[in-house]
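Supplementary notes for students who missed Thursday's class. We covered one full example, reproduced here. Read the sequence, then the structure, then the short commentary at the end.
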Amino acid sequence: MSFTVKANCQHGSQLIHRRKSPEAAIKKARELLKICYEVHIITPEGRDYASSEFGDIPRTPRVLQAVRKTQLVS
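Structure (token representation):
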């Protein structure tokens, strides 16, 4: 299972990175947002998420559980 992170850089080049987990893809995409524009994550199923939709990307069950616990504590 591979997530693809695509971004267009200011130089006019397109960067493509592959990550194994959705969390790793989101982390890389957020790093690229600092220097690039039009950052997208494409899931193994082919769904394309723009940067405004990164919160909608399905996460692994362990991460979801940790997020829910921190939301309950806050």
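Commentary. The longest helix spans residues 61-73. Helices lie at 22-33, 61-73. If anything here is unclear, bring it to office hours.
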